[in-house]
Structures are given as C-alpha cells and as structure tokens.
Amino acid sequence: MKRYTRTGDKGETSLIGSRVEKSHPQIEAMGHLDELNSQIGLAIAHQEDETLRIQLTKIQHDLFDLGSELMYAEAPPKMVDLSIVTELERWMDEWEESCPELVRFILPGGSVAAASLHVARAVCRRVERDLAALGVADRQLPYFNRLSDYLFTVARYANVVAGVPDQEYARGAAVFQPKRKKE
Fold first, then answer.
1. Using N-to-C axis directions, what is the helix angle for 84-96 and 141-162, rounded to 10°?
2. What's the CATH number of domain 14-162, 1.20.1200.10, 3.10.20.310, 1.10.287.110, 1.20.120.340?
3. pLDDT tens-digit profile of 114-165?
C-alpha cells in the first residue's frame, strides 16, 4: 500500500463526515495530541524505571483512543471509558511517595528523563486548552488535566531515580502545604 494519497495536497483533510481545512481547530488539536504522544514516546526512551515505561506506553494507547473521538465532524460516539482518570490518580499517588516534599514551584528540567516528561506535560496543557476551546470534548478534559499532573509527578520521580534534585524557583515563596501525617 502506498503511504501517500495526494488528497491533502490542496490544504484539506478529512474528519469522519466532512472535509475541512488543515488549519481547522479540530485538526490543530489532533496535531497537538500527536505531538504529545510523540513527546511521551521520547520520554519513554529516557526512562530507566520499567513500571514507568509500562505506564507511559499505556498512556500512549489511551491517547490514540481519545484522539479517535476527535476524528468526527459531528458529536463523536463516546468510545473511551474515562475510568482511566482514576488510574492516573492512583499511579500519581504511588509515585509521589518516592518524591521529596514539594514546598516551592520548581523549574522544569533536571535529568534528561525528567526534562522530557516536563516537555510532554507542557504539550499536554496545550492539548487541554485546544479541547476546552473546541467545546466538543469536555468529557476528556479531566483526563488531560490529570495527565499533566501525572507527567509533573513522574518528572519529579525521574529526577529521584537519576539522583538529581528538583531546582526550586529561586524567587518563589513556599506555596505548598506540608503533607499531614496520618494519625
């Protein structure tokens, strides 16, 4: 099968049910979602922790599923079970136990593994903004909101694994409340 179709040579592409300009906001959102998935792929290549690699690969599959809902010109069928939001929360809670207490804002970076996750987090926020602007994927917003939190958390964990401390924002105040000890 040939990889090229020539159907997009004049600046149009297909959604299910319609042809649209390649600059259409829905196509823009799908492009950013593809960029997010690619950034996560790059982040996987830099991770040492096998459990983290497995989780990130599952997220890549989830992103393909969520992207399939964006392929419809009209209201898409609900194809994705958003219990995956709860899964992200559970994973985050587990990773956070290995991270030092967060007191101030931190700068994105540290190890290459962490920096790649921070880039994915920033792209995830862009996807979230795209979806909010479209208004067609409101039900997906909790997933992308939680995914960006997850990527932040695992970026911090990747720095722990690499033995690289998070770099606090130098001019920031202590903004996070200390964890309460369980009684």
1. 20
2. 1.20.1200.10
3. 999 999 999 999 999 999 998 866 678 899 999 999 999 999 999 999 999 9
